Amino acid sequence: MATKKEPNNLSTKRQNTAARIIEALGSTQGLLSLAARKAGVSYSTVKRYAAESPTVKLAVQDAKSSTLDFAEGKLYQAISQGNLTAIIFYLKTQGKARGYIERSEFTGGEGEPLAAPIINLHMPDGTVVKPPRNGHDTRAAAAMLGEHSGNGHGGR
Fold first, then answer.
1. What is the largest CA-CA distance in the chain?
2. How far is CA 11 from its chain centroid?
3. Does residue 91 share a domain with residue 21?
4. Model-level pTM?
5. Residue 45 lies in domain
6. Hey, is 47 helix, strand or coil?
């Protein structure tokens, strides 16, 4: 049976669990599954505490931010040592405004947008059928082909 003291005990238990999670996060670079193991709780408990407790949420953000700072420092160190892979990675991710970007751009002459080709159908009876300009009006195209059903396909 529940007693009046249970909520306070639960609150104290939650505070202790939160403190263990926060301590574990500091030594696991913000990796939640490792922090859960170190704190003696499940991964879902860490996720729940991070969602419900502003203090735990901040600890997660701080730990991940510290790890990101560390990784950035290592990247800058590699760049300063002439590591070509690190240099290329940095330019691709941070130098986009200066044209360091890896993507394919397909354009027409002089950088103009590509135009869809216009295909004319030459029918066996010598007529030329031009499809609708918008390319989406299949009824009109079917009707035009149906007019030229003398090709042995019955207009299909």
1. 95
2. 38
3. yes
4. 0.54
5. 13-98
6. helix
Residue 114 backbone dihedrals phi, psi, to 5 degrees: -70, 140
Mark whether 32 and 80 lie in a shared domain.
yes
Domain count for the chain: 2
**Gap between the Cα atoms of 47 and 144, Å rounded:** 62
Place of tokens 């901040």: 58
Contact 22, 59 (CB under 8 A): yes
Q: How far is the C-alpha of 58 from the C-alpha of 49, rounded, in Å?
A: 11
Q: Compute the distance between CA of residue 125 and CA of residue 63 in angstroms, rounded to an integer.
A: 76
- Looking at the fold, whether 24 and 86 belong to one and the same domain comes out as yes
Distance of alpha carbon 118 from alpha carbon 99, whole angstroms: 34
Q: Report DSSP letters for 73-126, one per residue.
A: HHHHHHHHTT-HHHHHHHHHHH-GGGT---------GGGPPPPPPP--EE-TTS
The CA-atom distances, in angstroms, between 19 and each of 22, 23, 53, 113, 129 are 5, 6, 11, 58, 76
Tell me the per-residue pLDDT of 23-64, one tens digit each, with 9 for 90 and over. 999 999 999 999 999 999 999 999 999 999 999 999 999 999
Give the gyration radius of the chain's Cα atoms: 33
